[in-house]
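Technical annex B. To support the medicinal chemistry partners, we prepared a structural model of the target in complex with NAP, based solely on the information shown next.
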Amino acid sequence: MRTTASKRITNPVYAVTGASGHLGRLAVQELLARGVPSSDIVAIVRTPGTVTDLAQRGVDVRAADYTRPDTLRAALVGVNRLLLVSSSAAGQRLAQHTNVIAAAKTASVSRIVYTGILNADHTSNPLAGEHQDTERALREAGLPFIALRNGWYIENYADRLAQYVEAGEIVGAAGHGRISAASRHDYAAAAAAALLQNSEGVRIYELGGSAFDLFELAETITKVTSAIVSYRNLSVDEYKSALQRSGLDENAAEFVAALDASIARGDLETKSQDLEQLLGRPATSLADVISEARNHHG
Ligand SMILES: NC(=O)c1ccc[n+]([C@@H]2O[C@H](COP(=O)([O-])OP(=O)(O)OC[C@H]3O[C@@H](n4cnc5c(N)ncnc54)[C@H](OP(=O)(O)O)[C@@H]3O)[C@@H](O)[C@H]2O)c1
């Protein structure tokens, strides 16, 4: 009798770094919502106690630190596809990300999905350097990867809603620079979609929602909250001084003002439809995210 060797088809194992943070946690939740069994998801965090909710849902929680290669190698054992959520430690990110990429290679991870920055090819955003260098490190590592070049989070503004309403104004130096921002939730859903798709080689997605400038942000807040909020545009130097008067030290004020100057130059605008395509639906609108923030914070 002839027997056919049966080949067991196993599901990929997905890991998400920064799973204790806003974006990483949402990405794990998205994978679960899309039907990935919790036993096929690894949540990588520095402090397992911060994600007991995920552990209770059956997610495999593993401790690792971007600064400790041995912990990363151990955490990535058996992982096939990795979402590397960029670190929040600006200035140390390239070294940290390089550690993760090297550990992923050692652990035979077959694909890395990395959350970078919009327009990484040509942006002059002061935060871009480490993201550009990380993409270079990914290329040099020779692993298949997907760069999710994320635009600004709408939450960068929505989290300040109460402050804007109280002051009756938004102050900045972004001029009429347009911002193709999207909600963290949408970026997380896009990251889950990128992890789940079967692609090979290198893919780049420029991700952003419908563009607005800060005048339109103020108009939207006025419409949603019924409180009159306007946008006051300052020069970069004036804005830096205003930030210092509000308590920021000189370096921080210069940095925040430089971010607005970058917006004014168009660094955070994209016409790309990649986000909508990955989501399979339109991105959540600015008004909806503002409205949700209002309902949350009263
Ligand atoms: N596009 C935008 O507008 C925008 C805005 C802000 C940030 N970002 C970038 O997007 C990333 C994700 O955003 P987010 O809102 O989720 O940020 P977040 O809530 O601050 O999360 C950052 C995550 O990075 C983890 N992390 C930091 N240092 C680490 C280390 N040495 N080893 C292991 N994990 C480490 C943190 O772990 P712990 O919980 O242990 O601290 C946390 O889980 C940020 O880290 C930043 O690079 C983008």
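Notes passed to the chemistry partners:
The longest strand covers residues 111-117.
Confidence is low (pLDDT under 50) at residues 1-7.
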